[in-house]
Amino acid sequence: MSTALLLTHLQHPNPNVPLQTLTAALSHHLAADQPTPTPLAAAAISSPFFLTYPPTHDRLQALLTAFRHAAQLKYQALVKHAEEGWSVSRAIFSRGVEGGMKEWVRDVLRGLQGGRPVLRLACCTGLLSGITGLRGIDANKRRVEDEVIIALAEVLDDYTAETGDWEKEFRPHVDETLLSLTLILASQSLPLIPKSKLSALPLPLLARLLTATIASAFQHGNFLKSIPDATSAGAFNVPPDSPFTQTIQRTSTSPTMLSMPSLSKLTALIFEILLDSPRAQGGLEEAHKTLETFRAIAAQVERDYAKSNLASASGESDIPPATSTSTSALFKSAWLLLKTLLFTTTMLASSALSTIVYIPPPPPAPSSRSPDTRNAPQPQPQPQPQDLAESLVRTFAHLAFVVSQFGGVAAAASPTGGEGFTELRKAFYLALDILSSTATTERCDGLVRGLIAGAGAGEGQEKGRRDKTAYALACVEQVVPCLSVRCLREEVWGFCVPHLSDPAHRAAYESAHSVVLAVFAAHAAAAQHADRPAHRRLGGRVGVVSGRSGLPDESRGGSEKEAEEEGDEVGSAAAEMEEFVHRLVPFYAQCLIENSEDGRLSTAQLRLAYAALVRSASACASAAQELGWYCLAVLLDAVRGLDASLRQEREGEREGEEERRRTSGSARERERLHRLHLTLVSTVPALPLPLMVRVLEEIRSIITRATRAESGGGAGKGVGVGDDGGEERRRRKELVDALFAEILEKVGDREKEAAMRWWYAHREDFARSIGGANAEGRTDVRTEDGALSDAVSRL
């Protein structure tokens, strides 16, 4: 297509040639026409084809693509010309590739002068994209960056200018469609510009406009309204002309939704610049407004999702049966929108939260009782980092049914076997870290109460409630050190109990146990630091032992009387916490024994949980040894009872069908007994010296009794009777190795000497228990593969 024919087509608002053809022709002639591209650039930007109002996304992107390809074609032509006709005189007196690109870019920018701002923005965005990839070539990139910023600023000025009625007649009208198209172009160009230049733009205004555009793209959360009910056969067959179909198709195919990744990236970049500036408070306010907007969108989506039968599906791969192909594709599009909403929220929140952790806390506000401020108007409270963190936590709570598709926030892998949503977990735990380090106890209590109430309320499907329950438990686990004892006792404990023995819902089951362990860990940490003076001056929290202690010194306006009152409050809270743990220990000890069965807690989980229980029980000042020994007694009773049951079963066992019927159950019980033995070993580092010695003797008795039973050949005299010798030796070896590892790596300094003395006194017994006695009466301490045992080899 010649230049004249191209200009002819551009003079028609609706030419009869495809858009791709015009784009390719414009790119070619911009790069190839001589002597200058200025006239063609001016003709293109002022042509009726591109000036048609309202501008469309396709035409603006075509203009962008044409200028990007033109820059690349011009560079290739200059390189080819320089290589083909090289000579010394040309190298000295002729313009090189870099000079040619500079001149060409300058001429193109001259042709764009005076054009409509949005068209100039599209052209300059294409130029910037084309020359950014030219490494080692300075093709007037700084000037193109300036033109991009100026063009965008002019559009924003037209959108926000406040003028009189008569002035409006002479200003171009900028509607939401044009604004969204402008922001799409900005999202393609601004990330390529240095942050120092972007500060010249009205970034708070740009952040608000981006937030409004993204919210509008998601229909403000209303895209799941009017989902039809399932038929009697359990199928969804949505007519193509239904409102739900049209809404999903319009939303998922809109230019703004298709450009959501770049729009989210630009918004995140703006938050980084705002929050990293000396006036970070303005950035906090804009970021908080954005997260609150997404929270409202997520709440609306959750309400519509819970009311629909779509909540009965586990995800986009679990569409109800007998559903038509078109409807299945429609529901997959709906799930894609939900995941896009989650991705967008995560990207924006991660950008804001990762920056605000470096913002120093604001100075304390003057007291309202001060004579100087008593009659002064109180300023409006400004958003703080904990406000942003709480907004994100509550937003994720509304989207818990989407979060569960990636394995939840506490899982390291997704249900499909991948790594899960790593950025989601980073944002989640960062938000909770900010809350636990900056928020008050009352605020954390309120957050937990809201999450618990939200998990049990609503009219949605059972799966949705399970997802919210698992999410709420994961949140509670992280903020346990910041909660008041009253909240733990009245809200958290009652919320956890129903899930402690329900492994059918694995996420909630494991999270409930993690919450209880967090309570024990908080109590043990507080008890460990109880003798330190700083602990007696803590600001009312039981589990926090450092950091924001609220010391009542002169610089913080405290007094000795206030310090004494604060210390009394902390002492009272510590006493309440110890009483609560004292009542909690017996129940949870029995609960862990019940959960030692197959299919419940794994061996590693059981060992970790019982060790934490014993450690917390042994930290109680009122009855440390009694409560700690109670936990051990419960465990030993379970071991002896299970051992006696296996022995009785073996003694009464008959040959034939009954033996085959018992074999499977006996094997499971023997494995459970072995898990309990390993659990007993794991409690050794958590015990004070008197209890540790008693437990070590119990462990030695278990190992040596099993060895005597095997060597003596007497049925019913030991642990694991009925096993073959190799399997029993494997279990004893695992016990000895686990005991050695606990003594060597985890026993404290005060108990280390006594534990090592005890170990050396009985190491020969353990060597015999691992290797057994051979026909000549010698002890063989090697394993079945011929290698020395880990523990015995280090004796």
From TrEMBL:
Residues 551-561 have a biased composition (Basic and acidic residues). Residues 362-386, 542-571, 647-668, 771-795 are annotated as: Disordered. Coiled coil: none annotated. InterPro entries: PEX8-like. PANTHER family: MICROBODY (PEROXISOME) BIOGENESIS PROTEIN PEROXIN 8 (EUROFUNG) (PTHR39214:SF1). This is Peroxisomal membrane protein. It comes from Lyophyllum shimeji (Hon-shimeji).
